[in-house]
Specification:
By secondary structure, the protein is α/β, with parallel strands linked by helices. Helices cover about 55% and strands about 10% of the residues. The protein is built from 22 helices and 14 strands. The two termini are about 35 Å apart.
Length: about 575
Amino acid sequence: MKNVIIKLIMKEVGLDAVEVADLIEVSPRMEMGDFAFPCFSLAKKLKKNPMAIAKDLAEKFRKELPGEISSVDFKGAYVNFFIDKKILAEDVLAKVKRGGFGRSDLGEGERVVIDMSSPNIAKPFGIGHLRSTIIGNSIGKICEANGFGVTKINYLGDWGTQFGKIIFGFKKWGSEMELKKNPIKHLYELYVKANAKVPNGHDPAGLEFEKEARKEFKKLEEGDKENIGLWEKFRKLSLKEFDKIYDLLGIEFDVISGESFYNDKMGEVIDKLEGKNLVKKDDGAMIVDLKEEGLGVALIQKSDGTSLYVTRDLAAALDRYKEYKFDKMIYEVGQEQRLHFKQVFKILEKMGYDWAGDCIHATHGLYLDNDGKKFATRKGKTVFMKDILGEVVERAKVNLTEREKLPVKVLDERARKIALAAIFYGDLKNFRENNMIFDIDKFLAFEGDTGPYLLYSYARASSIVRKVRSKKVVKIVDLKNSEIKLLKKIDGFEDVVQKAYENLAPNLIANYCFELAQSFNEFYHACPVLGSEKEGFRLKLVDAFRIILGKGLGLLGIETIEEM
């Protein structure tokens, strides 16, 4: 319906489809029409009062109204369009029935690479990496819905000076018995203990520890057999634990990579930087000076010859473009890395790579504790995903058993889906750049703006579809306001999916799903289905809602439940 109006307006105002679409508004009240077109932006171009423009446009539109529009009016500087509700209903039900509604060919033939999740090996999968994991996963699904080919890369933090600390710590305090019994817990304890030894001021013992840790990492980079063996063991044990988390989350990757993959490609990057005269020596280290661009100095290689995060990300970007010829590469990484990625993208640009402009840092904010402070892994204060997921699942079981007695297998599966819906939606409904408090109680509520509420709405619609096997003719007459509102909300799904891609914003999908569920529940309470004169139509409308809500939740990575 919106597209019909866009084409009508384009003929008269000299704007393209995108410009018109950005201006069109959904009228806040039905008596003001279904869509409104504000004329303020045309005043300068047409050298006329916006109210006069609105009046003239309304008169022109009335002379050639397409069948989908019942009437056009104007109020102030707005042209108001009233759509034919019967045609709206027929169109919406037909589009949903055909399948593919909500998918577009916007990105047909193009490839998006997403760098996401990226936990650090030899540490537990902390809650801090959950945001990148579920936001990146949702962005990938949204890109796919817009026709893009998507490659999701889990780029592990499996290299760097921290491994010098862990290896040195393991040699000094480690236990093979503890490593075998609970590998990640033991490695994490060593990591915390090692960081406690980082020098504060001129502490001799701390300085000595730091020196020895750096030596161990240099040996690792140079291929020392003992250190490589320890590193490989730590990596393998970590991946095994991470896989358990990903299996529970229901998230898969196309590629598992890591910083270590680029260890032997550092020289090639440095050679290219030198060939472009971009690097210079600074106190024995190699740097790229970006002060003129307001980005400070990017350290490329330390004075002891060890590589850095920037260098490895440059190597990774070059390798990925060579491998995938991507049209867009999205780094779903926390906002604390903002400067780092600005430096990486600017260096790629200075190296002469046009595709540097297609690299995007999709930032996210922090998870905060209930005290409003961020989780700090290196101080030993963290929340392990394994523990938090277990807790949310158990609490979901308690909620379910209070409602009804279920077989164990059904209870376990239903509780898992509710727990994940609670966590995923609790995060994704927020704009990704905002910090947010991880509040399990709010996430798990069955009422209000929550994942369980959406699952319950879906299950309610599924129950109606199962119970009502109507063979009545689909009569679309005398549509009630709640029916119209639900139809219009369903009709807006495709537009939301496209906007979610344009802004890399899963929260637009999440917010849409909540508003859709609200519209459905208003309809449910106002319009009986079973036995009503319009049973056939209303059943089709319930099923259309169910299908679209399922698609929306799917874009968030949330699995639906048929019964609750």
